[in-house]
Amino acid sequence: MTDAAGTKLPALFSSTRLTPAQRRIARCLVDQASMATYMSASELAALAGVSQPSVTRFAIALGFEGYPDLRRHIAKLMSGQQADEPTGGNQFQRAVSAEQDNLRKLSDLLTDERPITEAGQALMNSQPLPVLGLRAAAPAAGYFGYFAAKIHPDVRILDAGGSEIGDQLQQARSAGARSLLAFVLPRYPRDTLAALTEARQLGMHVVSITDSPMSPAAELSDIVLPAAVGSQLVFDLHTAPMVLAMVLLQAMCDAAPTETTQRLENFELSAARRDIFST
């Protein structure tokens, strides 16, 4: 058994939309990776606090015939027989190849358009729209917010931790905010998870872009949009989450096409009048 569970098992689950119960099962498998290939379905069920049939349904949802089939696959995965890491090339090429794989998984996940469509509608209907991203996730929140402000009348970026986040969420809710978009990326800042809890308590609809259906954000979100984070280099690569952010922005445009077109036209007229761009 190797120490690769931290990346291989989450990758196994990342392309499937899991129910809360299934996320608990997946989390148990990751947390108990060294014992994953030895646990029976009943033992895993007891550990996760679910029924044994739930474990079977979990395995089937992942595309296996049943839990024994899943367990055999995990054994091969952990022994390196089905390694996910790309081979060949130098370390930089392997990192890029891994990101290509993450994008393919994201594309497969978007076969079901309903979650992204529902998220786009919910965010477009929220005025103001708070967008949360702390620490490593702050650039993603800022990137999304920059473009979202072109089609949404009131986007508020929350990118500083501490107790002020609670104040900002309360102010946004009092101003009419219905939803919160959160970028929740490893290593999952405590302030981010606290903010999601606060948003839920305020009655806000939480949409999270995170790295896995097993992310700590999943239990605190109404809609979870997973996109794998690259781990081939010293620092994480956020290629797939950034692409997903732009896909979500497109879903927002599609949710209100007339308003979006008008706002974009107004921006272009304003930009031309102020001579903002050189071309």
TrEMBL record:
GO molecular-function terms, A-Z: carbohydrate derivative binding; DNA binding; DNA-binding transcription factor activity
Alphabetic keyword roster: DNA-binding, Transcription, Transcription regulation
InterPro entries in UniProt: Homeodomain-like_sf (IPR009057), HTH_RpiR (IPR000281), RpiR-like (IPR047640), RpiR-like_SIS (IPR035472), SIS_dom (IPR001347), SIS_dom_sf (IPR046348), WH-like_DNA-bd_sf (IPR036388)
One example of a Gene Ontology biological process annotation: carbohydrate derivative metabolic process
Upper taxonomic lineage: Bacteria, Bacillati, Actinomycetota, Actinomycetes, Glycomycetales
Domain of life, source organism: Bacteria
Pfam families tied to this protein: HTH_6, SIS
Keyword Transit peptide: no
Full protein name: MurR/RpiR family transcriptional regulator
Keyword DNA-binding recorded: yes
Domain HTH rpiR-type: 5-81
